[in-house]
Amino acid sequence: MPTDSRLPGIDGASNISGPPIDGPIGQALWARADAVLPGRAMFMTRSARYAGPGVQPGFIDAAQGCRVRDADGRWYLDLNCGNGPNLLGYRHPEVEAAARRQAEQGDLMPYFPSAMVDFCERLLRWSPGFDWTLPVKAGSDATALAMRIVRAARNRDKLVLFRQAYHGNNAEQSLRHERHPAAALDNLYRLDWNDPAGLDAFTAEAAEQVAAIMLNPIDQPSGVPASEASADFVTAVHRFRARTGALVILDDVRSGFRLHPQGSHRAMGLDPDLLCLGKALGNGHAVGALLGKEPLRAAASSILYTSTYIYSAVCFRAAIATLDVYERDNAFAAIQRAAERLRAGVLAAAGRHGLDLRFTGPATHPNVLFADDPGCARGERFAYEAARRGLLFHPRLAWFVSAAHDDAAIDEAIAIADAALAACA
Ligand SMILES: Cc1ncc(COP(=O)(O)O)c(C=O)c1O
Hints:
This protein folds into two domains: 24-88 and 331-424, Aspartate Aminotransferase, domain 1; 93-328, Aspartate Aminotransferase, domain 2 (3-Layer(aba) Sandwich), CATH 3.40.640.10. Helices cover 38% and strands 14% of the residues. It has 13 helices and 15 strands. Helix 4 packs parallel to helix 10 and helix 12 packs across helix 13. It is globular. Pyridoxal-5'-phosphate binds next to helix 5.
């Protein structure tokens, strides 16, 4: 997210000369939403307004596979994937059947559901090397819990995060958009991404106080090119741990299941002490998890952590089914292949129209931006022209590909992108 208080799209003027994508029902919903919701706080990057006024449909009422339907009844091919969670396809039949079976027995009940233990065991089998797991409802919960556990484990207050990284919705995890009490951020160091020398230099300066480094697999702020962690940087993170005793937290909430079938740390060559998961884990059901190693079990046990809906059984059954289908169908390979075809096809179309469009970050969830388009005005136009033709993607946030994007869907996406690029050229 941008670090200043202005949010493009939400605060900006429209770059779009054509009619808004929303039909009459969507437009009426905006008027009603603005009356009952404090817009900026709630809307932020998850609002279609962050794509630019009139660029994307504001309200989506149905989804199936890789397609979604807006409030006015218009269907689109979707490359947002619910901002990541849709891994296997919206309303995947096996995931939904598992969720439905559990819902018929009960969802939130007293004490623990047995589904919770089944989920924890299944998750630990998914990525060998971790010894315990704590279920949560959201990515922000997983990262917040990790931050508490490392501080308890090391009896140190400070954390190292990287400059533009977003880790969740509390003061320490997010970037400054509001007035936080100064003390809320006193214990954070924000260092430069992919700067091994900077991290080495910092080791001597403040290392004794640092409980952990928390990093994402990719530096992927919105609206700017994404960059993957270099091998030298990963080595420097390991070196920092060896020299200082600080722990390593990998925030795999966004990239999880789309960079490596068993966790992004395996693609990066990173050996994290804690792994945070969310988004794609439940294929759209609200479930996340923190995975940890044996030496941190005692610190994890010392934290008071509870919340009413953590113990809901339906999302655990959905997540187990998601992992089963993902592994059985080798969904990772399918997503990777579809994503590479999409990237090649869209780049070729941009080249034909003389446009310098760039995919940065991994093909499975890239930032797709025009060169020399810092405010994303050109990107907004591309997203708008695509939406008019039935393809949704966000001009500032990552595109996401799911296992439901089969060859026909990718061909269709490329053809629409081609026509939209022609309209931009
Ligand atoms: C890298 C990263 N970490 C944490 C979060 C927070 O997850 P949630 O929105 O589920 O709380 C996000 C959400 O976008 C994210 O992208």
